[in-house]
Specification:
By secondary structure, the chain is an alpha/beta fold. It has six helices and eight strands, in the order βαβββαβααβαβαβ. The chain has an eight-stranded mixed sheet with strand order 4-3-2-5-6-1-7-8, with helices on both faces. It is globular and about 45 Å long.
């Protein structure tokens, strides 16, 4: 197993890697490998949902939580409900001990995490337990991410082949045909 326990999927602001993450972890889910964390789901595909709805699926329980404040159908801006994110973070942290996951997935190291809250504690807990972490990091938070993760993280492009290659280094199976030479483009932070 690799000493680098964290893979940061660095992406341009507003270009979320949720589909790449979902595609990369699907073989793990199909094999029944225990996962912890949260993955953002597409809300626009669900009837009665507003584009501002932010839906996170708890990967251990399967529960889906809408974590945006409900501001009405005419709302123009999205606001995160921090108390709901805090509840989800507690559930994720609990699952690190109760579910014995082989991977923690954090869809986004957002402003809340950069400021010390959200799923930041779960990331630290997982590393302390030796559980690999896959986390999306928007470019705007990259400096704060680097200050937090230091040499424990490698930076990858948000591409399924790069994720699959890294998962293989952690002893986790990738989807057939998903592996590539993307590992060569990984950047390790010192």
């Amino acid at each position: 197993m690799s000493e680098v326990l964290i893979a940061a999927l660095v992406y341009a602001d507003g270009i979320y890697p949720d589909r790449a993450i979902a595609r990369a972890i699907e073989p793990l889910r199909e094999r029944g490998i225990a996962l912890a964390g949260a993955l953002q789901l597409e809300s626009t595909d669900l009837p009665g949902r507003h584009p501002c709805d932010m839906l996170l699926q708890d990967l251990a329980s399967g529960e889906v939580t809408a974590i945006a404040e409900h501001r009405g159908s005419e709302a123009r801006g999205c606001r995160l409900d921090v108390s709901l994110l805090t509840d989800l973070a507690e559930s994720v942290a609990f699952s690190l001990y109760s579910e014995e996951p082989r991977l923690l997935v954090v869809n986004k190291f957002g402003k809340i995490e950069a400021d010390g809250g959200g799923l930041r504690g779960a990331i630290a807990e997982a590393v302390g337990l030796g559980i690999p972490v896959l986390v999306g990091v928007p470019a705007r938070n990259l400096d704060r991410w680097r200050a937090f993760a230091g040499p424990l993280a490698v930076e990858l492009p948000a591409e399924p082949a790069a994720i699959a290659d890294w998962l293989e280094t952690q002893g986790l199976p990738a989807a057939p045909g998903a592996r590539g030479t993307a590992a060569a483009s990984a950047t390790r932070r010192a």
